[in-house]
Specification:
Keywords: Heme, Hydrogen peroxide, Iron, Metal-binding, Oxidoreductase, Peroxidase. It comes from Streptomyces griseorubens. It catalyses: 2 H2O2 = O2 + 2 H2O. Belongs to the catalase family. HPII subfamily. With 538 residues, the protein is of the alpha+beta class. 26% of the residues lie in helices and 15% in strands. It has 13 helices and 12 strands. Strands 1, 2, 3, 4, 5, 6, 7, 8, 11 and 12 form a 10-stranded antiparallel sheet that branches. A hairpin with a 2-residue loop joins strand 9 and strand 10. Helix 3 runs antiparallel to helix 4, helix 11 packs across helix 13 and helix 12 packs antiparallel against helix 13. The longest helix is centred in the C-terminal third of the chain and has 17 residues. It starts with 13 loop residues before the first helix and ends in a 30-residue tail after the last helix. The structure holds protoporphyrin IX containing FE. The site of protoporphyrin IX containing FE has 28 residues, from strand 2, strand 3, strand 4 and helix 9.
Length: 538
């Protein structure tokens, strides 16, 4: 069913609109006029010239010419599925979010994606994977727009155009399409060392998942949960697949790309069609909302950091089951618009500077991608809660709004619905104290350690995972044209671990440099290893 803004005059909504486009037993033109032939242009005799007056030809070709919309600037290739999220109620202790109360079921739509390649690229490339979930809650839409890797390449959104320009195909030849084995990517990450942690993650096995059904998902940033009394808790979101976390090995990934470039989307769709519904448990790591927003010395506002699960266990709060394939890829998987700013009461953002940029970016890009500001009215994006906004008109408006007063306060359309001071289940930003300071363009000192956590990751890997990582760096760097980039990256690896560096250096036929920073004294986190694994799998 559609929201209240759509068609108060009684014109068709939602499923009715679909029926409208494909109802009746006769083929018609877009205006509903019956056609008697759609196979031949109108000509002056069977061999004569085509006539300009053929309005059916003109309409058919015009529409076809405009079938494509721009692909996403990142995460262009994806696969989606519908499902349901069943809350355990365990999060009620820390959030008032209604969909996390005991036994609440919420419909969801998930889109998995690769990041770098274009819409037609292959599935099993080495890349980060997107894991974006839209919860259609009774309090409005909540989007958890995450990845399968718990950290990100950059700490500040102002670097996003840089990292994406570096990772996308070279502007001259437009290769490589989707793999990281190219000069611009390694040029950037070898100089922008805050990318080191994300890079070692996707040089590891998580960069080539076996199936979307076997990936973890992470909200990456620290979020703030708020309970009914206004008490706050900092959290990180985790999705844990019931099937466990599994990856391909590199040779398999390469072969599959040739044999079946649609391997991941086929696997997801086939599993759901066969009734083998994939499931993930949603969990949270919780941290006290202290003024410095750190935990065990880890800056929670730095999205290049994880908090090891051994220090803050992931507590399960609900179960997601994907049980229905999209019936129309374009209308669902392509037109879905996720946004980190789609929040519901009880879930708030933090001052992570990467998150701040994302709060701007998603809406902005969707204006271009989905042709104007009315994309929330597209069926896949419609909230399942009533909508009563004062947004009006615009490109591709489908609502026919009533009344004369789309402004507040007003006395003409029933007056102002707000009651001063009352909560009314509204979304209220947490009144956290904003730190005072000089206006500056600089990162905090606590963002400056780029090697301790990558070293922890390396030390947490099993022997076979380490071999995969060495092989991945050697392969990728071996494909770079510029030797200076290889040499610079070896320096980064030396600062993570001498063995990692010397093994890759051997493979490349280059000398291994000495570390330029003291090697961090960190404990491994067994939960990071796919071989160890800490999450119960049944
Ligand atoms: C798309 C995740 C950082 C801009 C996506 C998608 C995911 C995602 C999963 C695909 C959504 C879909 O399936 O439709 C992340 C994560 C990030 C991150 C986890 C860091 C923690 C950023 C940043 C920016 C950004 C810093 C910009 C400042 C975009 C844009 C899209 C996108 C423009 C395309 C959206 C669309 O066309 O609908 N991101 N992203 N992302 N992301 Fe991010």
């Amino acid at each position: 069913s559609g929201p209240a803004t759509v068609s108060p005059t009684g014109s068709p909504t939602g499923a009715d609109q679909a029926r409208m486009a494909q109802s009746g037993s006769h083929l018609t033109n877009a205006q509903g006029t019956r056609l008697y032939d759609t196979d031949h242009s109108l000509k002056a005799g069977p061999r004569g010239p085509v006539l300009l007056q053929d309005h059916h030809l003109r309409e058919k070709i015009m529409h076809f010419d405009h079938e494509r919309i721009p692909e996403r600037v990142v995460h262009a290739r994806g696969a989606g599925a519908h499902g349901v999220f069943q809350s355990y109620g365990t999060a009620s202790a820390v959030t008032k979010a209604g969909f996390l109360a005991p036994d609440v079921e919420t419909p969801v739509f998930v889109r998995f994606s690769t990041v770098v390649g274009s819409r037609g690229s292959a599935d099993t490339v080495r890349d980060t994977r997107g894991f974006a979930t839209k919860f259609y809650t009774s309090e409005g839409v909540f989007d958890l727009v995450g990845n399968n890797i718990p950290v990100f390449f950059i700490q500040d959104a102002i670097k996003f155009p840089d990292v994406v320009h570096a990772a996308k195909p070279h502007p001259d030849r437009e290769i490589p399409q989707a793999q990281s084995a190219h000069d611009t990517f390694w040029d950037f990450v070898s100089m922008h060392t805050e990318a080191t942690h994300h890079t070692i993650f996707f040089m590891g096995d998580r960069g080539i998942p076996r199936s979307y059904r076997m990936m973890e998902g992470f909200g990456v940033h620290t979020f703030r949960l708020v309970d009914a009394e206004g008490r706050t808790t900092l959290v990180k979101f985790h999705w844990k697949p019931k099937l466990g976390v599994h990856s391909l090995v590199w040779d398999e990934a390469q072969l599959i790309n040739g044999n079946d470039p649609d391997f991941h989307r086929r696997d997801l769709a086939d599993a759901i069609e066969a009734g083998a519904y994939p499931q993930w448990e949603l969990g949270i790591q919780t941290f006290p909302d202290t003024p410095d927003q750190t935990f065990e010395g880890i800056d929670l506002l730095d999205p290049t950091n994880i908090v090891p699960e051994e220090l803050a266990p992931v507590q399960p709060i609900g179960l997601m089951t994907l049980n229905r394939n999209p019936s129309n890829f374009f209308a669902e998987t392509e037109q879905v618009a996720f946004h980190v700013g789609h929040l519901v009461p009880g879930i708030d953002v933090t001052d992570d500077p990467l998150l701040a940029g994302r709060l701007f970016s998603y809406l902005d890009t969707q204006i271009t991608r989905l042709g104007g500001p009315n994309f929330p009215q597209l069926p896949i994006n419609r909230p399942h809660a009533p909508v009563n906004d004062m947004l009006r008109d615009g490109m591709h408006q489908t609502a026919v709004h009533r009344g004369v007063a789309p402004y507040q306060p007003n006395s003409l359309d029933g007056g102002c619905p707000f009651t001063a001071g009352a909560d009314m289940g509204a979304y209220i930003e947490t009144p956290v104290t904003v730190p005072e300071g000089r206006k500056v363009r600089e990162a905090p000192e606590s963002f400056s350690d780029h090697y301790s956590q990558p070293r922890r990751f390396w030390l947490s890997m099993s022997p076979v995972e380490r071999e995969h990582i060495i092989g991945a760096y050697t392969f990728e760097l071996g494909r770079c044209y510029e030797e200076a980039i290889r040499v610079r990256t070896l320096q980064v690896l030396a600062n993570i671990d001498p063995e990692l560096c010397s093994r890759v250096a051997d493979g490349l036929g280059l000398p291994a440099p000495e570390p330029t920073v003291p090697l961090a004294d960190v404990e491994p986190s067994p939960a990071l290893s796919q071989v160890g694994g800490t999450w119960p799998v049944d």
